[in-house]
C-alpha cells in the first residue's frame, strides 16, 4: 500500500495520461470509422475498393509497426512539430478506426434491406437513407463490438509508453527504476487498468440496454 500512497501523484498522472489517450483516440477512431464504413457500403465501386484496402492494411499491420512508422517516419519527412502524445493519438485512433468500421459494417448488414428500399421509394437519397435509416440502427446493433474496440484501445495505450508518452505503463517503469518491487508496482498498475476497463464495460452495457428494442 505504501507504493500507492507514497507515489499517488505519479499514479494519478499516469492514469490521467491513459484516460486522455484513450478518449482522444476513441473520438478519432469513431470519426474515421464512420468515414470508412461509408466508403465500405458505398454503391460506388471505387469507394468500396478504397475503403476495403485501407481497412485491410490497418487490420493486418501490427500496432507497434505503425508506432515505429509514424514516430520515425514523420521526422524523416521533416514533420517534427507534432509531439509524441499527438502522434500516439493519431496512430491509435487510425488503427482502431478500421475495427470501428468493421463493427459498424456488421451493424449495417444486420439492418433489413427492405428498410433502405422503402426509404428510397419515399424519395430519400442514398445519403439520407444512410444517415437517417441505416446508420442509427447499425449503431445500435454495433454497440457490443464497439465496446470491445474501446477496451482494446485502453490495453494498447501501454505501447505508447515505449514512445515517450507518459501513461500507466510508464508509471510502472519509473517506479521500478526507483527501486520498488516489480510485482507490487505491476499489481497496482494492473488494478488501475482493470478499474478503467470495468467502468467502460459498464458504460457500454448500460448503453446496450438503453438502446435495446423491446421484445
TrEMBL record:
The chain crosses the membrane at residues 12-37, 49-70, 82-101, 180-207. SUPFAM superfamilies: MetI-like. Residues 15-208 form the ABC transmembrane type-1 domain. Keywords: Amino-acid transport, Membrane, Transmembrane, Transmembrane helix, Transport. InterPro entries: ArtM/GltK/GlnP/TcyL/YhdX-like (IPR043429), MetI-like (IPR000515), MetI-like_sf (IPR035906). Its main location: membrane. It is a multi-pass membrane protein. Gene3D superfamilies: MetI-like. It comes from the Bacteria. It is found in: Cell membrane; Membrane. Belongs to the binding-protein-dependent transport system permease family. HisMQ subfamily. This is ABC transporter permease subunit. It comes from Streptomyces anatolicus.
